[in-house]
Amino acid sequence: MPAHVHRTRTVVGLALTALALAAGCSGHTGSGALGRPEGAAVVPSTVSPSPALTARATEDLRDPPQIVSRNGLLRTTIVVERKKVHLAGRDLWALTYNGMYMPPTLRLRPGDRMEISFENKLDKQTNLHVHGMHVSPVGHSDNVFLKIEPGKTFTYEYRFPKSLEPGTYWYHPHPHTLSTAQTAGGMAGLIVVDGLDEYLPARLRGITEHVVALKDFQLVGDEIKTTNLKMGAPTTRTVNGQLNARIRIRPGETQLWRLANIGANIFYKVSLPGTKFHVIAQDGYPVNKIYSVDSLVIPAGARYDVLVQGPQAGVSELLTLPYNTGKAGNQFPRATLATVRSDGRPIRPEALPTTFAPVDDLAKEALAGRKTVTFTENKAGTLFYINHKQFDHNRVDFRARLNTVEEWTIKNDSDEVHSFHVHTNDFQVMSINGKPQTNYGLQDTVDVPPRGNMVIRIRFLDYPGKTVLHCHILNHEDAGMMAVLQIDK
Question: What does residue 340 show for φ and ψ, rounded to 5 degrees?
């Protein structure tokens, strides 16, 4: 079998309520009380957030600080704590990694190891998930069943193969029933695996790149709201923790932008009118053929690495366009994300390649089994299910065998979009609502339309153990829409 068939992709003035964690949450509300800053007032979790903040573009986009692997090892410390941060022109209480709303980007290479000393200074348990990374789901690695209790420190250890796929990933908390609150509160950062340059022609290697991390927050007084989060409520959208920052580019210049939705719930339909996005990787997996689009729908958890070529001199807006997730879902409004300023001496746009990374096509693989995964919710939109069961970490819902390929049908028996995500291994989308899909490469977070279905093929490689699959709208995950997958040797 050709080597590329076995390619794997890895990198990785009001206070919050002190009410107890709610037993369930609506499809449009979150859960998870996390205490309050010392000396702050207690307010009901039902307080509505303030209108979304807006601003003129007065500062340039800042890429997050980076922690880079050295000699095959990335070793760092992550401290989780509630702190006041300067955000959107205000001093706000947030849940932070290393005291930052936009924490460091972890940057490594294929074959590296990563060690993280993880210290929990919250008053609730937490843990760490390296989203999208093909890495062991057990032990001290990407084990979302771990509970790091308040005041405790735990050392995470990850070993990545040399075959890991280059691209953009992210890290966030994954404690069941608290994932929404902690991620929405600010606990989310990026991981970059280097190597996309290897597929680009020499003239496009070393080009300017920018992280475009999409994070939103709902504001109540002087703090970020984490409980009873309504997906349709006003929310302030930031890029790298900045409000309408200015992205500079020269007319005709080619840049690499890493678009990543690292929020808890909401959708983005990202567009730069008059300029196309040329996709070179999706969900951290290099495409086999570069494709160009006017806009990208990015659900929570999804990422796209794109080439952007500077428009004619002038100022334009990077937008999220109106997007409707169904009659039981939400209508997300148009909003400005950043301002793009194209100026300086124009340069001739480089011709972009068409083919890119090797083709990995699971349609050609023998199938070891088929499964059906059905998303449902109750009429009130307060409880969510997979195959009519709520999540139970003690129950195994699905079993697969290592070194096999299976075909799964993901059914959405509800009137709103659900975002299918699976840990440990990526999947190829074969069809959506019966329409065959072009295979550009594997993915890890894909929307299933209301009352629709998606057929995928998934290969189980390298790592046995207990892992999970779920809807990556974290409100829905925390309210039960998650299942246990056991990968047997």
Answer: -105, 120
